[in-house]
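Hey team,

Filing this mostly as a record. A colleague (T.K.) asked me to run one chain through the structure pipeline before their review meeting, and I want the input and output archived in the tracker in case anyone asks later how it was produced. No errors, nothing strange. Just documentation.

Input sequence:
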Amino acid sequence: MRYRYVKLTPDQFRAGLLEAGIPLERFCKLTGTDRRRAQRYITGVEDIPPWVGSYLAMLTRPDARAIAHAYADAYATLADNVDTPEG
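Output structure:
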């Protein structure tokens, strides 16, 4: 079974980041999204995946935000000069 989702707009994405209390860089770290790709979401060059809206909505809960930040801080490291399919 497949579902169709209403597309999240760049304005809604920016508003979601504000409501969740995270800057774009932090969103990238929390989700593993390449910064260039996230910038394409902001500028409307690339469609925003449906999971982004759900994720941002969950981050408005303080308990979920703390868990997500702790996980990213424990397992994510900055990877400069790494070839990724997102690049």
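Quick notes for T.K.: The CA atoms of residues 29 and 76 lie 7 Å apart. The mean pLDDT is 88.
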